């Protein structure tokens, strides 16, 4: 295990942290400690009491901050498990051992320690995380926003998962913990709160501890994090969704073998959805297209003259739209987006249909939502990318993607006048509320509550009434 400690100043705090790591119950020859000095003046030094395998490195001058120092320390560390510690945190004697025992039991675990202030009874460190853990039975009943429980201080991540998600973003600055936790969550990480992994802050000024341990402010979430984090959806405005780096949904549409009218019917209905927070991937052999006249005949033999013309027209229609990308093979996962939607080409969706599908998927907490009609057409599929990335690692030989995802996170099937909810391993699950059948897939629309019409009638009646104290109401 490698412990990465970013530090800026505070030589006394570094001394106490390293002394506590030297007294750990975890075997010393299996522990590596990397202290990253974030250009402190004068430079930090290693104390005499420290772990046997400990080194001090200076962060590069091309950045600054905790995220920059952690990313550089993770690059230099050699352990299979990366454990983060702040330079003013003093871990208890079983801190590293408590983290390691989970990582030896399951490869996808991300352990969350508990950091307290000088007075453990106050427990002001990460209060939002403690409330979330308590309300979800130790994150056992967490929903699609489980990444909000991740905090960088006193946590441990498998190296392979750290590298697979792209690692910490050293340029993000404040909020990099929450953004990294979001990517870990979409990659299928299992967050485990470990109550034995306890550490204590030694800051003399309580405000310094509180400023680091509270959740990101609303202004930071909506102004910076919303560009790279589509969840929570309340933090992203419809205008910001149009220019966001990471969309909420990635949509896969097959273009080969269909006319330009069929492709436009599907893509235009998706892009015209109010506040559409999505990107569309058109799948076709685009590399074979060429405008050179002497090679047109060769391409026409490979694709067919009609297919070649249709693909050229499709490409000309969406070449200038930044929300449309052209890909050779269908995407298997939408990472880092939380959802991947596969729509049959030629289907025209009504406004707000995608939002309705996401709401149904979040309600069922299923890894796959299949929506089909009474015919034999291909169903629309909404994949939860967290479930797909986990299924990629546990899929058995001969098992389909749908079966693998259903085994890991369950499958939710919606048909005309019928719906079926499959739990993990094919087991039953509580039946959801009654579903209003859809006559056709092309006429999908979010169901309107029945009480809405009644409320409108009451509001209209009140608008035409005048109330006088002590007298009956009279209509105008």
From TrEMBL:
Top EC category: transferase
Domain of life: Bacteria
InterPro entries: Glyco_trans_2-like, Glycosyltransf_2, Nucleotide-diphossugar_trans
Pfam families registered for this protein in UniProt: Glycos_transf_2
Gene3D superfamilies: Spore Coat Polysaccharide Biosynthesis Protein SpsA, Chain A
SUPFAM superfamilies: Nucleotide-diphospho-sugar transferases (SSF53448)
GO terms of molecular function: glycosyltransferase activity
Keywords attached to this entry: Glycosyltransferase, Transferase
EC number(s) per entry: 2.4.-.-
The Glycosyltransferase 2-like domain, residue ranges: 2-127
Protein name: Glycosyltransferase family A protein
């Amino acid at each position: 295990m490698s412990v990465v400690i970013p530090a800026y100043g505070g030589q006394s705090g570094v001394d106490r942290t390293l002394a506590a790591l030297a007294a750990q119950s975890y075997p010393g020859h299996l522990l590596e400690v990397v202290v990253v000095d974030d250009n402190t003046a004068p430079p930090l030094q290693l104390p005499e009491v420290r772990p046997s395998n400990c080194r001090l490195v200076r962060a590069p001058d091309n950045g600054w901050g905790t995220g920059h120092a952690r990313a550089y320390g993770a690059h230099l560390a050699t352990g299979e498990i990366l454990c983060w510690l702040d330079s003013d945190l003093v871990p208890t004697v079983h801190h590293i051992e408590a983290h390691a025992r989970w990582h030896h039991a399951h490869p996808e675990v991300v352990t969350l320690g508990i950091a307290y202030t000088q007075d453990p009874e106050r427990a002001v460190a990460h209060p939002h995380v403690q409330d979330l853990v308590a309300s979800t039975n130790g994150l056992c009943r967490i929903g699609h926003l489980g990444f909000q429980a991740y905090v960088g201080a006193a946590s441990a991540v498998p190296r392979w998962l750290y590298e697979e998600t792209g690692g910490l973003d050293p340029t993000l600055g404040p909020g990099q913990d929450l953004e990294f936790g979001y990517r870990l969550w979409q990659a299928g990480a299992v967050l485990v709160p470990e109550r034995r992994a306890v550490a204590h802050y030694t800051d003399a000024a309580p405000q310094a501890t509180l400023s680091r341990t509270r959740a990101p402010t609303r202004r930071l979430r909506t102004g910076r994090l919303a560009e790279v984090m589509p969840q929570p959806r309340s933090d992203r405005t419809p205008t910001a969704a149009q220019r966001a780096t990471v969309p909420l949904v990635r949509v896969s549409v097959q273009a080969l073998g269909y006319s330009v009218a069929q492709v436009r019917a599907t893509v235009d209905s998706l892009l015209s959805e109010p506040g559409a927070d999505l990107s569309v991937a058109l799948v076709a052999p685009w590399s074979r297209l060429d405008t050179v006249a002497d090679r047109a005949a060769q391409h026409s033999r490979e694709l067919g003259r009609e297919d070649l013309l249709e693909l050229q027209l499709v490409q000309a229609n969406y070449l200038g739209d930044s929300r449309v990308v052209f890909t050779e093979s269908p995407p298997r996962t939408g990472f880092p987006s939380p959802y991947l939607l596969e729509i049959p080409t030629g289907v025209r969706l009504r406004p707000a249909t995608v939002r309705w599908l996401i709401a149904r998927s979040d309600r069922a907490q299923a890894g796959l939502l299949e929506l089909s009609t009474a015919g034999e057409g291909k169903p629309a599929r909404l994949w939860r990318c967290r479930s797909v990335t986990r299924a990629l690692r546990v899929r058995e030989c001969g098992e389909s993607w749908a079966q693998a995802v259903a085994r890991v996170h369950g499958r939710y099937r919606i048909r005309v006048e019928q719906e079926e909810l499959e739990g993990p391993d094919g087991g039953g699950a509580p039946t959801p509320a009654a579903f209003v059948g859809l006559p056709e897939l092309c006429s999908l629309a979010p169901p309107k509550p029945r009480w809405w019409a009644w409320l409108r009638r009451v509001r209209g009646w009140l608008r035409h009434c005048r109330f006088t104290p002590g007298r009956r109401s009279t209509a105008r």
